[in-house]
UniProtKB/TrEMBL annotation:
It comes from Paractinoplanes aksuensis. The chain crosses the membrane at residues 51-67, 74-93, 105-123. Keywords: Membrane, Transmembrane, Transmembrane helix. This is Uncharacterized protein. The keyword Transmembrane applies.
């Protein structure tokens, strides 16, 4: 699970361009010349900065949980990302008509990866559940006693 958080951490750092350099993000995201954001409507600095701030807040939460992971913290972080990712994914899915096929695929795949990351954090870790069950069984007094 921590590897997922690290990969997503790198992705979020790239997205902070929207917070620090909103016009650059608007014109050049994900790379110069692709214009994924500018094709979707006129420039709005407040919107770009708000988007960047949301990503930065999620990044802070993610890094904190990555440094001190527990099952509950991972699930809560995944839930926060899931709320964000579902809305973001659905909006972009409904607005793909301005893109070429290659860029449609790029949009859907990149946003689906974030959605998958969130789902992976929300799902319980089966190894932890099995370990907890085994520990509980070992700690319980035996009912089968011979007389």
């Amino acid at each position: 699970m921590c590897e997922l958080l690290l990969d997503h951490h790198r992705c979020c750092l790239e997205r902070q361009q929207s917070r620090a350099f909103p016009l650059s993000f608007y014109n050049d995201f994900p790379v110069a010349g692709w214009h994924w954001v500018s094709l979707l409507g006129p420039y709005n600095e407040r919107l770009m900065r708000d988007y960047g701030a949301t990503n930065l807040a999620l990044l802070v939460l993610t890094v904190w949980v990555w440094r001190r992971p527990t099952a509950e913290k991972l699930c809560m972080t995944g839930s926060a990302w899931l709320v964000y990712a579902v809305v973001h994914f659905l909006w972009h899915l409904l607005h793909l008509e301005v893109f070429t096929t290659l860029h449609k695929v790029g949009n859907v795949v990149s946003l689906a990866l974030i959605l998958g990351f969130a789902v992976a954090l929300v799902l319980p870790d089966r190894a932890d559940e099995n370990r907890a069950t085994a520990e509980a069984s070992a700690a319980a007094p035996s009912r089968n006693t011979t007389r």
